[in-house]
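Q: Is it fine to ask for two folds in a single conversation?
A: Yes, each is treated on its own. Send the first.
Q: Here.
A: Result:
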Amino acid sequence: LILTIDDKIQKKAYDLLGNNKGSIVLMDPKTGEIYAMVSNPTFSPVNLRTDWKNIVESEESYLLNRSTMGLYAPGSIFKVITATAALENSHVSKNYNCQGSVTIEGYTLRDYGNTSHGNINLEEALAKSCNVSFAKMGVEIGQSKLKETAEKYMLNKDIPFDLQTAKSRILNEKVDKAGLGATAIGQGTTLVTPLNMAMVASAIANNGYMVHPTLVKRVETPEGLIVKESEVSTLSQVTTSGVTDELRDMMEKVVTQGTGKSARIRNVQVAGKTGTAENETDKTHAWFIGFAPSNDPKLAIAVILENNGGTGGSVAAPIARDLIIDALNTLE
């Protein structure tokens, strides 16, 4: 088996994840080749026999491949999907007024730190990750359209891959307007895999075309004869290049002016989105998804730090930045 994984980049990804639980997926948005896919905590197959009891009984879930099987609340990284649906529908407002919170059918959604953003357009709302704007947006978009857009990004769908993958989940039951507002900001009942969110970033980077993710580049005989070789194929046409051009500009602003400033790289334009996702524990998941260089994307990434308690901008974005720098230098 000849894998798409680059050993140097893979090791760097493990080093960057450190002692954090979570996952990093780094891929080529145009070919679907996976350069790094790490899941932590992990185990050493060398000590499998002696450590087996601890591995299977531990609450750390050593055997769970978090990259493909871990299901997490996405938090604000989901806003790129909501923004896609908004851009595709001319009737949806692109200008909002944020007073720090919004109450929808008796349920109050708040911005981080109760920040009031005032009058704000869609680009500014994504850069500042304004919950109020996106919650209102979700209600305007409606359940049917938001679900349809998410499914084009392969949520609720089986992702064909060389490893077993879990299916991301969204809006499989009727929700009220409050539930729709929560869904639009990546909360509610939505759960996603890191692989799926790296593919979301890839689709935006690749002008709306989501390619088939690949881990096995080819299969060879011991004599070097190629038995099977992967080919680039489109898995889903998510949206138009016009919409992805707008999303790309907005995601660049996230990194240059918004919550993703820690992902900035000198002389390389990065497009991204941060996320800080509430879950069943009292510690949030920290997310970052993005791609670079944004004018000619060679890399797309998803980083999640599970139950880290930090924000996506403060802890996940710097990891993405450092891995992108390393990978761009390695792949030259």
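Q: Second one now.
A: Result:
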Amino acid sequence: MRRIIRAFLAYLRAHIGVMLHYRGEILLWSMWGIINPAVLYAMWSSAAAGSDKGTIAGLDARGIAAYYFGIMIVGHLPASWDVHQMGYNIRSGNLSPLLLRPLLPLWKSLSENVAYKVTTLVFVVPMWGLFAWLVQPRFEAAAWQLGLGLVALALAAALNFILSYTVSLVAFWATKLDAMGEIYFGLGMFVGGRLAPLDALPAPLLMVAKVLPFRWIFAFPTELLMGKTPGMTEALTGITIQLIWIGSVVVLFRFLWEIGRASCRERV
């Protein structure tokens, strides 16, 4: 484990240096995580203002502001893109030399992921502050909800990374993953709570959201941090479900990784 930590920190320093050479590009990447929730906030707050009760999914304008402010943060910190990148790495041969190293290529991808999030904080934190100042979100979270919300956010980041990486292993058997990446992103938007609060979804989509992991990556941490999760039992149940998903996906990753490598050796 000590060897893994040292290697990961070395990877992380190198990738932070690389990110700092592309400041304009990472600024553009960061803007998507701000613009998309801001547009959705404007859309849903207008819909709430035009409704009879002045609410959408039980949220008024300031509640919707709190939700999409949370989505800005939760959408940024668990972000992962391996489901888009792995196909290119395999086709281009970039993965091959990584297989000769004593560490799984997953650790290099994780260090890139963390480096991006660290370097983009200098851009996104002021934007988050400006958005909060403009829309005046209302948070009703107690101290225990904030504490558990931070735990849920960390678990959401771990779950999204390992899930994205595991789905990306389909690239061992498929020539391109573009469609798979778009499906993965779309599921996160529609049934993860990024497009709309889950309570606003039609019943069939809500049923799908309840059985897929995306709710626990985006909607659950957001609702917990804003104080929408009412009880300690419900919050701890959600965190337990996150842990179960993480454990299950790790097992699936190990299985797919081994048979994927074996299939590559057979083709060679």
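Q: Anything structural to flag on that second result?
A: Two points. The longest helix spans residues 232-267. The CA atoms of residues 15 and 112 lie 6 Å apart.
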